[in-house]
Amino acid sequence: MSVAVIVAVGCAGALLGIAAGYWLPPHGRLPARDRPQGDHRRILLPFTGEEISRRSFEAAVRLAKAENAIIMPAFLARVPMNLPLETALPVQCARGMPLLEAIEQRAASQGVPVDSRVARGRTARDALRKLLEQEQFDRIIVSADEDPRAGLSYEDLRWMLDRVPAEILILRPAPQDTRRISVEIVKGHF
Amino acid sequence: MVATADHSRGRLKVFIGMAAGAGKTYRMLLEGDAELQAGRDVVIGLLETHGRAETARVAEGLPIVPRRRVRYRETVLEEMDLPAILRRAPELCLIDELAHTNAPGTEHTKRHEDVEAVLAAGIDVLSTLNVQHLESLNDHITELSGIRVRETIPDAILARADEVVLIDLTPEALLERLRAGKIYPSERIDAALNNFFKIENLSALREVALRQVAEEVGAKRLTTELVGSREESLAADAPHAVGERLLALVEPEPSAQRLVRRAWRSAQRLGAGLDLLWVRVPGRQLSEDEHRSLVALRQLASVLGARMIEEESDDLTAAVVEVALRRGITYILVGSSRPARGLARLRAPLPQRLMARLPGVDVRIVADRSQRANGASLESQ
């Protein structure tokens, strides 16, 4: 085989490769750095209100950095008993979505990847149970808040300790620690 | 007054309120009576008094086109007699409860379609509507009130109305009317007070109704300003622009959640519907993480009240264009693209390709604000 043929075959191959790069849909392949990684640990950060304790969030960030983990903030929406479970919940979402945005922005600014979730159920516990049925998490971080309206009650926390097959970190902020992650920190018009 | 392109068509005026008992029908009848006194040929096409004496009293003196009887499964139902109204051909027809669903066997499924037929015959129409019957507000109001309204009408019907009049009163005044037996008979008052007629429900509904009418007024003003100018062709399209619909292009990956949240907020501000579109390459297998992301996206769409559309295609642009045309999309949101490689650098980016093939549709690239360099403190106390 002559050198010319080898060069021609080489050129044709190169052209073919370039053409394939042009014609193949860009969403068909992902750059290596963007490909989903299956070996990340997953830290669930569930919440129900318009703010979460800064202490819980910072604990999640520290652990995520140490373990190369993804933080998964999850908004738990409650469906009133007189509505079907599949009901859209725009009013609750108007409170929960900005907080998801705030958590995601803040975590990302600290170099921690975030993958958000939304779950709904008759109660916060029911929503959390449904989420845990769908996905597995390595660790769950929750804030034990004195205010029962804040979301997960002590009973819910006890239920988690009994039933959930994951490491559970329950943080009770000191009474004087009023720092919160809230929608106030969202950048932009969101 | 809004100029209309078709002068032979009748004019539609809708009285909208936050709930039953606000006084929409009463006000409609008063205006009908005033028109009658002014010498116009006015008839009542359909009136629902719900046994309210005040309403029945003000209807006295207005000619009525009798209802017709429609047999359905051994039951005889009374419905508006559309053929009789068209034969009678008045100048102005009063048709109550625009969102009503007709009995099977009539000309149209919904009363607003009957109203369209009356308008098309050159007859002006006065009608009434509760705000919870608007399709785009249905999920919102269901969550607020805990009651899902089954009879809804497309928002475009209201957008096409020549005039929209809000019949407003405070929730306290409405409850007072309810307790005084002016809305429902005495045996239904307690049930109403315990269910729908709660102060928090009424306050929320009132806010929704006020906002809705304010947005309608804004849209109408835009149309009016354009009519008669060089931009008459734009004016013809302006009412359609009221019915915004957003499309967010997603992929099963974590960043899609942010894009969807941003799209949803935009849709909320515009009072628009939201569709999510994932174009899947045929034969592509999802990784475990992608599958999880897809499930999470579907869940997010459902909770937000958005519609998740999944299409299979090798040609992303063509698939998006097809869906956008099919769904009447006015606004497309895309995430920031990955850098192109090879000869793909020579190809126009997706937003430009979409703008070229979808003239008149806005395309917005959603930035990742968490990546934006910013000296502002993120600290929150």
Give me the secondary-structure topology.
The complex is a heterodimer of chains A (190) and B (381).
Chain A: H1 3-23, E1 41-47, E2 51-53, H2 54-67, E3 69-78, H3 90-109, E4 117-121, H4 124-134, E5 139-143, H5 154-163, E6 167-171, E7 180-182
Parallel strand pairs in A: 1-3, 1-5, 3-4, 5-6
Antiparallel strand pairs in A: 2-7
Chain B: E1 12-17, H1 24-37, E2 42-46, H2 53-59, E3 68-72, E4 75-79, H3 82-88, E5 92-95, H4 111-120, E6 124-130, H5 138-145, H6 155-160, E7 163-167, H7 171-179, H8 186-194, H9 199-226, H10 232-241, E8 245-249, H11 255-270, E9 273-280, H12 288-304, E10 307-312, H13 316-327, E11 331-335, H14 350-357, E12 362-366
Parallel strand pairs in B: 1-6, 1-7, 2-5, 5-6, 8-9, 8-11, 9-10, 11-12
Antiparallel strand pairs in B: 3-4
Helix pairs in contact in B: 1-2, 9-10, 11-12
How does this model look, in words?
Chain A has 190 residues and is α/β, with parallel strands linked by helices. Chain A is 40% helix and 20% strand. In chain A, the strands form two sheets. In chain A, strands 4-3-1-5-6 form a five-stranded parallel β-sheet, with helices on both faces. In chain A, α5 (154-163) links the parallel β5 and β6. The radius of gyration of chain A is 23 Å and the shape is elongated. In chain A, 36% of the residues are buried. With 381 residues, chain B is an alpha/beta fold. Chain B has helices spanning 24-37, 53-59, 82-88, 111-120, 138-145, 155-160, 171-179, 186-194, 199-226, 232-241, 255-270, 288-304, 316-327, 350-357; strands at 12-17, 42-46, 68-72, 75-79, 92-95, 124-130, 163-167, 245-249, 273-280, 307-312, 331-335, 362-366. Chain B has a five-stranded parallel β-sheet, with helices on both faces. A five-stranded parallel β-sheet of chain B has the order 10-9-8-11-12, with helices on both faces. In chain B, strands 3-4 form a two-stranded antiparallel ribbon. In chain B, α12 links the parallel β9 (273-280) and β10 (307-312). Chain B is elongated and about 80 Å long. The termini of chain B are far apart.
